[in-house]
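Extended Data, record Cytosol aminopeptidase
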Amino acid sequence: MALTFAKVASDDPDNLPLFIVDTDGFDAWLVEQSETTQNWLKATGFKPGLGAVSIIPGDKGSKTAAVVGFGSEKDRKRGRFALAAAAPKLSEGTYTIAQNPDGFDAEVEALGWLLSAYRFDRYKSGAGHEAKLVCPDGIDAEKIEAIAAGEALTRDLINIPANDMGPDELEAATSKLADAHSAQLSVIRGDDLLKENFPLIHTVGRASDRAPRLLDMRWGGTGPKLTLVGKGVCFDTGGLNLKPGSSMGLMKKDMGGAATVLGLAHMIMALKLPLQLRVLIPAVENAVSANAFRPGDILTSRKGLTVEINNTDAEGRLVLADALALASEDDPDQIISMATLTGAARIAVGPDLSPYYAEDDNIAEALFQAGSKVADPLWRMPFWDPYEPMVEPGIADLDNAPAGGFAGSITAALFLRRFATEGRYTHFDIYGWNPSAKPARPKGGVGMGARAILEALPEILDL
C-alpha cells in the first residue's frame, strides 16, 4: 500500500482548493468568500467542528472547492492528526491546501493525511480513501512518505496473526527490508544459538516447533553507531505460566517491538541518515511443550549473569537480555530497545503514550521534545536505583519476575539495563496497539515512539 502525495504541481488546474477552517476563525473567513460559498455553507448548516466536510458545488454537478473543519484548540488537544479526521470523508480527487488556520502544523497534518489512507487488507479487501493531497509548500515530501511507509510496515507486521507471522515470516520480512536498502542480514537459528552463546533466546523459543533465531541487520559504513533492539516474540502463550484466554487474544502483537524497530529502520535507511545502523531482533514463539523452560529454573545469560525464572510469562526481557549483551559488545554510541514488555506500563500511562527510560538526561529531553513536535507523545519513566534489590533474588544474579507486583515496568527496565552499555541505553516499553479507531490510527497495530526517535536522532547522535 503506497501512502504517497499526489504527484502533480500544486497549481494544476484540476486540483481542488482545500480550505481548512477552525472554530475561532470561521466567521472571519466566511465573510471573505463568494456569495455562492457563503450561501451553500449556510444552507447546509456547515459548522467547522473537527472532521466536518463540505464540498462546494459548481455548474452541472462539478466540484469547485472543499471546506473542512479543524475544530477548536480544545478539540485538537484531545487528539492528534486533526486534518486526518476529514480526509476519509472527502470525495475522490486531488486537493491543494489553499488556506489553513493559525497553529496549523503542515508537516504533522500532511503525515496524518497519508496515514489516514492506511488499510490492513491482507485478509479482507478494502481500499483507503481516494482523496489525494498535494504536499504542502515547504514540506519535505520524501521524508513524510518515508515515515508513512515505515509506519505502514510496522502496522502490517503487528496486524498479521501468528499463524502467518512466526519467526520464519519475521525473518522473511527483515530480509525483504534489508534487500530493499542494500543492508546485510545474518541469522542464527535453532541449536546454533547455543553454539554462539545465546542461551536465553534458545531457552525461551525451544518449546515451539518454529525455531527461535536472532536476526542481525547492518546498514551504513560511516558515522555514529546506533543499535536498535526489538522484542520479536511472535506469539506468547505465557509458557508453563499459561496466560488465560482473555490475555492471550492480542499476543500476536508481542512482536510489536520488532515491528517498530523495522519501521524505524526503514525510515532511517530511506532517508539515508549518516549513521551506522544495526538492528537486532530475537525472534521466538513462547510455547508450551515437554521441553518448555520452567518456573524455578536458573539460566545463564550470554553476559554470564544468572537469572532465576519466577514466571515464564516474563520471557521478553530474557530474549532481549542476550540481544542487548551482543549489542554492547560492538560499543555503539546508543542502544535503543523497543518492546511490548509489561502490562504495568499500560496501567501507568494507557495505550497512547510511549513510556521510555533514558540514562542520559539530555537524550531524555531530546526525545520528549521530539515526540511533542511530531505528535508521537512519550512519557519518561525512571531507572529508579532504589528498586534494584527487587530484581536480585539472592539465589541468582537476577529475578525475571519480582514478587509483589510493584513497579513492574521499572523493574523490567532495570533488569534490561544490566545487559546494556552503561550510560548509552534507552528503553521503550510500548503497547503497539490502538484499541479504538482514531484519526490516522485505525484500530489495530500501531507504531509508537519511532517518529520521536527519528526526529531526535540528530541531537542524540550529533549528526
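Summary. Residues 145-460 form a domain with the Aminopeptidase fold (CATH 3.40.630.10).
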